[in-house]
Amino acid sequence: MTVYDLPASLSTHLQAHLYLSDTEYAYTISVLYTVYSLPNIVLSFVDGFVAEKYGTARTLVWTLRSIVCEHIMFVLGVKTRLGLLLVIGRIALGLGDEVAEVAVSEVVSAWFR
User: Is residue 33 one of the residues assigned to a domain?
Assistant: First the structure.
């Protein structure tokens, strides 16, 4: 999915908006990428099973909702300058993004059979 690099694409503007020094900003970006990756350590083992058990359509809807929630939380976190909301939003993205990629791959492969 294309939303993975959201913090990097906003790098200079986000740093200025959050009033962070270079060191603080580097730490914040590292935390944002880490919390995105942590759920995927576990979810990468169960993505396929989830899609098979609950169906691809239901799994895709759930994960896309998670991605939309992430964007809303991330935007609200930037607007209010709350780092915790940024982190929670990235966790929500980590829960949904990689599972969505598995479900989309399944839909595409079924389409071209």
Answer: yes
- Residues in contact with 77: Cβ distance below 8 Å, sequence separation at least 6, in sequence order: 83, 84, 85, 86, 87, 88, 89
- pTM of the complete model: 0.79
What domain range includes position 82?
A: 6-111
- Per-residue pLDDT tens listing for the chain (113 residues): 445 566 667 778 888 888 999 999 889 888 988 998 888 888 777 877 887 888 888 888 888 888 888 889 988 998 999 989 989 988 888 888 878 887 888 888 888 88
